[in-house]
Amino acid sequence: MSNGQKITFPGAHGADLAARLDLPAGSIHAFALFAHCFTCTKDTLAASRIASELTRSGYAVLRFDFTGLGGSGGDFANTDFSANVADLLAAADYLRTNYQAPALLIGHSLGGAAVLAAAGDIAEVRAVVTVGAPADVAHVLHNFGGDVERIEAEGEAEVSLAGRPFTIRKAFLDDARAQDQAGRIGKLRKALLVLHAPTDATVGIENAAEIFAAAKHPKSFVSLDGANHLLTGREDASFAASVIAAWSARYVGDAKTPAAEDASGPDLVTVSESGNGKFQQLVRSGPHTLFADEPTDVGGADTGPAPYDFMAIALAACTSMTLRIYAGFKQIDLGRISVSVSHGKVHARDCADCVEELTEQGGKIDRFERVIAIEGGVPAELEDKVLEIADKCPVHRTLESGAAVVTRYAGDVDPA
Fold this sequence. Notes:
Blueprint: E1 2-10, E2 16-24, E3 30-35, H1 45-56, E4 59-64, H2 81-98, E5 104-108, H3 110-118, E6 127-131, H4 147-154, E7 156-161, E8 164-169, H5 170-177, H6 181-186, E9 191-196, H7 206-214, E10 219-223, H8 234-252, H9 258-263, E11 269-273, E12 281-285, E13 288-292, H10 307-330, E14 337-347, H11 356-359, E15 364-374, H12 380-390, H13 394-401
Parallel strand pairs: 3-4, 3-5, 5-6, 6-9, 9-10
Antiparallel strand pairs: 1-2, 2-4, 7-8, 11-12, 12-13, 14-15
């Protein structure tokens, strides 16, 4: 299960670009950036299915419409391949500023060529994936057929692509022909996965061979047998996504970007506003990244646990771990432990099962109710001991005894 949110950010040439950020249900292992195929959008079947599969593996995936396409602003006629690459760099900057820079780039068709071109300018990227990508950017010109000569002669022409009219200018042709993809691939210095279908009738399999030959190790190739260029078959897109998730974990599963390393030491938790929604916060704890938010009924987007939920999580996790340590020390064969914690505000004097110091207070107090379940149960003579050991959980003790909170002002902070 994943959470998705619609966002916009400024493209390289000033137009607002429409994007979707797909978030995993739990901790984020790394951020990925997806580039769609030529004249496609972020919502193609391949893009949505690959993003969905990656979120199940703990990746947050940003996919967006290039300038002039889909929900993005700007005029497609004023764009070219270099503009697409610049939009990709703008998307990486957006992630770097608001969340965490992408460690993984994925590109489909011409989007694959774009991620190969952009990867060298995104220092945090550790791995690149191409799906049905051309080895030479100028390969895209075959889509224009006999209109190429008319574009050359008249400076621009309207062509039909996938049943839709697009204005293509001579500058687009010149830019595509000027790209040195082989040189870029040879200097990539990132792990590379090439996915391609032998039956691809739009971008032939020989393109995958050229990309693979130009790249240096580590590099991998996986054949998408029976798939078409757009991966419209559900099983084909799902297979590609599962391969990407499994392969990329070797290179970026535990990756930390320089920003994350600077922000969080082993004993430091850093929380900062993401800039999306009213309450969403980006939480960094060591190598772990996740979100905090509020429920929708109080104005949040419900993309992560609320602050008191984190307190309940801490109590439940600490309780389970404490019981496991005790069982190991005493060599007790204790089944799988699960702990449920709920939180609420109650009147102090009405809390019959609270400690005396709390019941003597006036007004309302916080009450955490903890329920412990152990697979297979425990002998009757151990039931009281389980409850006793649970009360020794350090988080439990902290909540009951209170803690000192010392606050200081850090001074002006660079928003980047």
